[in-house]
Amino acid sequence: MTGTPKYKRVLLKISGEALMGGRDYGLDPDTVDRIAADIRDVQAKGVEVCVVVGGGNIFRGIAGAAAGMDRATADYMGMLATVMNSLAMQNALEKLDVYTRVLSAIPMATVAEPYVRRRAVRHMEKGRVVIFAAGTGNPFFTTDTAAALRASEMGCEALLKGTKVDGVYDADPVKNSKAKRFQHLSYRDVLTQDLGVMDHSAISLSRENSIPILVFSIYDSGAFAKVLCGEGRYTEISSKA
Does any domain span residue 67? Predict the structure, then answer.
């Protein structure tokens, strides 16, 4: 990190798919370790970090519902997948001597603390990385919405979404080499153009609480730190765009 971080407390949202690396499913240990190292480097600069990890690399609720499974049941299974990913991320961080706590929206005292907002804030004030597991604890809500909710509850100054690409494009850059990357977007732009970077509930919640969303590639080592300093390639979604 060459510059000075623009934010003191942030939430990092990582999709479950980002943890797969080059695999078709599951976890890639090297990818998990690299992301953990990026989080450590950011925290070392005095930034308070909390994390929400998706579960799409293990189970996706909507896919289960489409296959004939009850949607609520499928979503609960997806929440359990996020707990598994959160524990993996905790393990990777603690190997780097980063104090970490997993707080689950679904009580499971054997493996994680129950989510209590004041407790989570206290952990962050003590310099611990807090990983929020099990989404919101309710079916029919995505982990993107959980990320926006937790960012709001924690008083985060920004929500960073680590994806496979370095920002928001007007078309799939993997399929269309001429796709244009946006530098800035307003919340309204994302909603009206249905760009799909996050679900509408997450965008609306971020707008209501004036939390900018920074979309960047989690695959670029060191990108998390660069984006926090206003460097590198990313798309900012905010009211000022």
Answer: yes
Q: Is residue 34 part of a domain?
A: yes
Name the pTM for this structure: 0.95
156-204 pLDDT, tens digit each? 999 999 998 999 998 888 888 889 999 999 999 999 998 989 999 999 9
- Over residues 120-145, the pLDDT tens digits come to 999 999 999 999 999 999 999 999 99
Torsion of the alpha carbons at 26, 31, 36 and 42, rounded to the nearest 10: -130
CATH number at residue 14: 3.40.1160.10
Q: Find, among 202, 209, 200, 213, the residue nearest to 241 by Cα.
A: 213
Edge-to-edge strands, sheet with 158-163: 113-114, 100-104, 129-133, 48-53, 9-14, 158-163, 213-217, 235-237, 184-185
